[in-house]
Amino acid sequence: MGDLYVALIHAPVYNKNKEIVATSITNLDLHDIARSSATYGVKRYYLVHPAEAQRKLAGRIMGFWQEGFGADYNPDRQEAFSLVYLASDLAEVLDNIKLEQGVSPLCVVTGARKQANSIDYRSMRKRLENESTSFLLLFGTGWGILQEDLERADLILDPICGPGKYNHLSVRSAVSIILDRLCGK
Question: Which of 67, 110, 166, 176 is deepest in the core (most CB within 10 A)?
Fold first, then answer.
C-alpha cells in the first residue's frame, strides 16, 4: 500500500464567477480535515496558501492545540494537528513529498464536476491498496481547482453525487466522504 497525502488548495482556485482568487483559511477546515486525516491514516495534510499572514493564522490556531492548555485539554487535537504542514504553493508540497519519498506522488484531483477521464472510487481504492507509490489527493476551496491543474493531474476522481441536482458540499465534508470511500473499513 502506498502513502496517502491530502492537500487543501486555497490559491489559485475559482470563485463562483470563474475568476481566479485566493480563499481564506477557515478554522473548521483546519480542524476537521486534520481530524479526518488522522482517522483515515493520511501521512500528511498540507494546507496550501500563498499569503504568509494566512499561514501564520493557521499556525497560531494549531499552536493553541499543540501546547499549553489546549494540548492538555484535548490531546487528540494535538495528534491530528501533528499531520498538518503549511505550504505556500503546490510546488512546495510536491517537493516536500518527493524529498521524503524519493519520487513524486501521483496527483489525484477532486472536484464537484464529472470529467471525461475520471476514475471511480472502487478503482482508486484498489490502486491505493495495491500500488507502492504515494498518492496526493488535491482538494480545492472556493469553486474548485483551476482547469489547467485538472489537466496536469495524473488522475481525476469522480465527484461525490447525491440523489438530486444540488452538488456543493463543504470541502471538509467532501474530504471526509472521499477518505472513507478510499480508506474506510
Answer: 110
